[in-house]
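Page 42, continued from yesterday. The earlier attempt failed because a stray header line got pasted into the input along with the sequence. Redoing it now with the clean sequence only.
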Amino acid sequence: MACAVAGGLAAAILTAQLANAALGVLAGINAAALLFLATGTAVLWPMDAATTRADARREALPPLTEEVVVAGASLAGLAGIALLLVLGGEHAGPLAAALALTGVFLTWAALHLMYTARYAALYFSGPAPGGIDFNSPEKPCYQDFFYFSFAVGMTYGVTDTAVSRTDIRSVVLRHSLLSYVFGAAVVATAINLVVGVFAG
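This time it went through. Structure tokens are written below.
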């Protein structure tokens, strides 16, 4: 997380000096989200079931802090597009449009990566792991939680898995609502952005 924030700040400052503040903000959002995704995926994806359990049971961020981070990641993408729309004119060129749209996609994916770790931590909390039925005799690893999280993010609900614990259901509900609002805002703003930039 700290590496992603530092990389994002460095990219923002450098781009702002070379171009302008608007592009700097957009470049910073892209760099931070990309670093978070790359490092998080590289670390979590290869873990087997035993390593996943050990990692997920380590002390994590407090739930409220984690939810704030998740919400902040999603709002950062929307802020990138909103910034471009507000500035308009000469700043709203193809490069800025590309950075805004890429930033939205990357922060959307970062949101679901964060929830991947959240679901794993909840699953392995307590004396007996459980709460999500992956319909497999094998013990789950992070790849299973990636599947679950991105499925919720893209469909706004669970797919072929069953959730049997109230605490996990409440996180799924928040995740689904945030994904729905995020997705609706992205579609509406992206259409407005593309029409404004490439038609005018």
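Notes: Residues 49-198 form one domain.
Reminder to self: strip header lines before submitting.
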